[in-house]
Amino acid sequence: MRIFVITSRVPWPLEKGDKLRIYHQLKHLHKNHEIFLCCLTDEKVDQKDLENLRDICSDYAIVPLKKTLILWHMILGLFSDRPFQVHYFFQRQARRKVYRYVDQFQPDHIYCQLIRAAEHVKHIHKVPKTLDYMDAFNKGVERRINGAPWYKRLVFRQEARRLVAYENLIYEYFEHHLIISEQDRDFIFHPRRQNIAVIPNGVDQAFFSPIAHPKKYDLVFTGNMNYPPNIDCAVFLAKEVLPLVRKSIPDATLLLAGAQPAPQVKALNGKGITVTGWLDDIRLAYAESSVFVAPMRIGSGLQNKLLEAMSMELPCITSPLANNALHAHDGEEILVATQAHEVADHCISLLRDAELARNIALNGRRFVQERYSWEHTAQQLEELMMAN
Description:
The chain is of the alpha/beta class. It is built from 16 helices and 13 strands. It has helices spanning about 15-30, 45-50, 65-75, 85-90, 90-105, 135-140, 150-170, 180-185, 230-250, 265, 285, 305-310, 320-325, 340-350, 355-370, 375-385, and strands at about 1-5, 35-40, 60-65, 110-115, 130-135, 175-180, 195-200, 215-220, 255, 275, 290-295, 315-320, 335. The longest helix is centred in the middle third of the chain and has 21 residues, at about 230-250.
């Protein structure tokens, strides 16, 4: 099958969840199908990054988005009912290029990752199309409202309402749909939402395998540190959880590892807290740490960081919000907590009780091995695309 794929970003480097998801999906689809990858981008693209695309597609095209038009469309978005992020990624001249690439490639199927890119292909009716919602964006934005400064709350409320409407509307333009978790599917308010296939992420279990390494840090949290839910979690850990842990373990340390740390995250560096920025190999952050802790309070979707840490046999702590997508068993494969004192208690228990930590770690890796492989999730996607 000839599959035309459109994304809102170039899927390399793999520092963001959407890039990771599409990269591994295409890596496996490319074994049996001819893939043309069309990437919208608002950033300057490094030619070295493009070399990595050869592993996941037969050919590719980069469609730059003009900064001036992005700004203009965001202004127009103030007077529109479409979500701002749809305005941000849509440009008519970009759509014309997409149409031209589709005509040249003559696909049997079109695969669109994220509603952000959907405007560029929604009116193509000559071939069947599949949309990956990935997350329920409306809920992710809604969860940011309460913690936002007052001047952002109005914008977030408006964006959340627009996303509810758009995620409902765009459903009708695609024959097939998928999303990362049942929890996210429940927040797509379309009467036929049960037809949306739940296809989670996987984890490269060979790459993210246990590594024997001296421990430098007690606690670790990873992720793109410029992403609001990760910023919130990093600040929560440093300012609310770690001080409670230190009442029992005075010299407890925290590692915050991930690309593009925001100013709020950079400011946490020091006094037993290490902020790394980009790491060439994120496995080192896991290997050097004793406990992975990700009590996510906002955001949506399945947390790749949890899959990676569990696959590397770290005992993990998370929140009900994140575990609702993961479906691990609390007390067996993971520890779940909401409040700072609960998270701190779990951290102390795992740091002091080697047997508990070992059991959670072993059970966690086994859980991920049984349920989350890229091969399996890519096969699910392939079957969805080929369904009548």
